[in-house]
From TrEMBL:
Residues 87-165 form the Transcription elongation factor GreA/GreB C-terminal domain. One of its GO terms (molecular function) is RNA polymerase binding. GO terms for biological process: regulation of DNA-templated transcription elongation. Coiled coil: none annotated. It comes from Roseateles asaccharophilus. Keywords: Elongation factor, Protein biosynthesis. This is GreA/GreB family elongation factor. It comes from the Bacteria. It holds the Pfam family GreA_GreB. InterPro entries: GreA/GreB_C_sf, Tscrpt_elong_fac_GreA/B_C, Tscrpt_elong_fac_GreA/B_fam.
Length: 165
């Protein structure tokens, strides 16, 4: 699988997210500063609430800009069995569901800020996670055939590394 294609898809999705966050911030700012939303008494808080929303959207936009910068500088490398799984690895994980059927999922480890699920043209899905995510941390340094376990809420989940690219 083409890791540069995955990186491009992540960057495209982040660009879309940035546009939405910036539009949300502009709309909230316009609402907060509109003359009809000037508070007439202490219970009239629409303008104040809109200003909080505008601030939050602006922070979200800045976080997305930082993620875009990290993903633009990111250079996924080929898997090195000597180092084990590192950022840039494409990992096929196997795990048993409640019916004990073997389920597989593809994960692409990348920089922070790119957590998303990508749908590829061939119908496959790739989950993008960062090395800082609990599953990402558990994968770092592992090799094909290794097993790992993570705690998710009240349950412990077991995985096996089936393939690494």
């Amino acid at each position: 699988m083409d890791k540069l294609l995955l990186q491009r898809l992540v960057l495209e999705r982040l660009a879309e997210d940035l546009l939405q966050a910036e539009q949300g911030a502009r709309t909230a700012h316009e609402t907060a500063t509109h003359e009809e939303n000037i508070a007439e008494n202490k219970y009239d808080t629409l303008g104040l609430e809109a200003s909080y929303l505008a601030t939050g959207q602006a922070r979200r936009a800045e976080a997305i800009r930082q993620a875009i910068g990290q993903w633009q500088q990111f250079r996924p490398r080929a898997y090195d069995a000597g180092q084990g799984i590192q950022l840039g690895a494409l990992v096929c994980l196997g795990h048993a569901d409640d019916d004990e059927k073997q389920q597989q999922q593809l994960l692409f480890l990348g920089p922070d800020g790119g957590s998303m699920k990508l749908a590829l043209e061939d119908g496959q899905f790739v989950q993008v996670i960062s090395g800082a995510a609990p599953l990402g941390r558990a994968l770092l340094g592992k090799h094909e055939g290794d097993e790992l376990s993570i705690q998710v809420a009240a349950s412990r989940q077991q995985f096996e590394v089936l393939r690494v690219e």
